[in-house]
Amino acid sequence: MAFRAAVVTFPGSNCDRDMAVALEAVSGQPAIRVWHGDADLPADLDLVALPGGFSYGDYLRSGAMAATSPIMRAVIAAAERGVPVLGVCNGFQVLTEARLLPGALLRNAGQRFVCRTVPLTVANAASPFTAGYAAGETIRIPVAHHDGNYYADAETLDRLEGEGRIAFRYAESCNGSARDIAGVLSANGRVLGMMPHPERAIEPAAVAALGGADGRRLFESILASFAPA
Amino acid sequence: MQVRVLVRLKPGVLDPQGRAVHHALEGLGFEGVADVRIGRLIELDVAESTSRETLTAMCEKLLANTVIESFTIETPEGPR
Q1: What is the pLDDT of residue A204?
Q2: Which domains are present in chain A?
Q3: pLDDT exceeds cutoff 60 at B79
Q4: pLDDT score of A139 more than 70
């Protein structure tokens, strides 16, 4: 059976093609492209990916408008059925606004847009998304965001840490995120939201020029975990 | 009916924008400013029959993110 992934495009998404290219590079299968106004997702998906960008111009709050779009009703329903969902950057913001993940992404503490490759610590290497990494390993993945400052109340943060739901932490100061959180998993481990862009770090040829290929293993982990037998 | 919704960051949620504005006010020579917090005013023109419950639902579902923000609904009868 072929791996079936869908990439959602919202008005203002700008990393949707990168996400589709990364998924195809690793799986050998073209990603199915879905539009925000679609009411339904294709059947039998192994993954839904919400890409980076500035959906709806970041009106109201980053991700808030996208979270109310017709396709998100289908994504929420799919996630509740256990379909894996990956949200990167704006996709992470959409997942928190849609309440598929706890917390919120605030304006960066330094007020500035941060665009550079940052070191991340793999906090949980046992999840379906991160199994290709070693626990505690430091990887390098690009970030590019203005609203990446993860916030949740102390009780929620304690629960996320206690349940192993922090996937990645920043290994250096980046945006003011609570407890340096860069990526969060859902309770069932089948939804991952992260601010860094693994889809921008998949090409070995780009090792020198674009900050490495450490993102590739995330997609390989997804394939190993979720591809149909 | 004209309705005003005031959306504010909850106490304890860092407001870097407010902090930058606070700093700028001090730079302009204004003294005695203890803190600056920036929120959002949303003006709605809704049917007279719109209930408090409906307005509250609008706030909880979209206008405010209750993880980080609180909201106040002001109707012609007064703030709530």
Answers
A1: 75
A2: 5-226 (3.40.50.880)
A3: no
A4: yes
